[in-house]
Amino acid sequence: MSRKNNGSILIITVFVFLLVNIIAINCSALILSNTRYTRYDYEEVYMKEQCLGKIELIYSNILKEVDKTLTDTNDYDSFKEYIVSDNFLNTIKNIQDDDLNNTTYQINRTDLNDKNNIYYEIISKTTYNKFSKQIVAYVKIKNPFQEDSSSKNKDNSQDVEDSEERDLNKLKSSDENIEVSQKEQEKIKNIEDINCSDLVIMFGYKEE
């Protein structure tokens, strides 16, 4: 009777031991799996923040440069000429004192046959622990000046140009309290009221 009891106890002990081992192995696998997923989620968030950080810096440069261009230009052609120039592109590319060392970027001007807007493509890419992530965003810069008015000025006859030059000389020779025409006042006021953030719009954001 004692031998039968000992045999039963041994079988039960072995069964319990095997059951405990199976549970322990499954728990370990689940923990490792969750750890890998948690680590991947962290890397995904980290890389996304790095890419977006670089894009935000470039966007900030564009806002500053557009605001400066509004001050330095006063017609459609001069505004557009500078916004599409290499000087503008090199200026917005100039990013200093940032800690996004693992992130590279590229800026391209895109031609969408839109005469009133100028488009740029920003590509930001970062690498971390053998993983990589890329984010692409597009920026639309609106020309605040009317093209028709500038074209009309170019089509004026020589007599009109001579008349304007004479008027300009009169303005220069007059005293500092000279009055600007109502039309010119409205033009200046409208430009001063423009917020550069309304002219620079980011769109088409996508992750790759």
UniProtKB/TrEMBL annotation:
The keyword Transmembrane applies. The chain crosses the membrane at residues 9-32. Residues 166-185 have a biased composition (Basic and acidic residues). Keywords: Membrane, Transmembrane, Transmembrane helix. Residues 146-185 are annotated as: Disordered. The keyword Membrane applies. This is Uncharacterized protein.
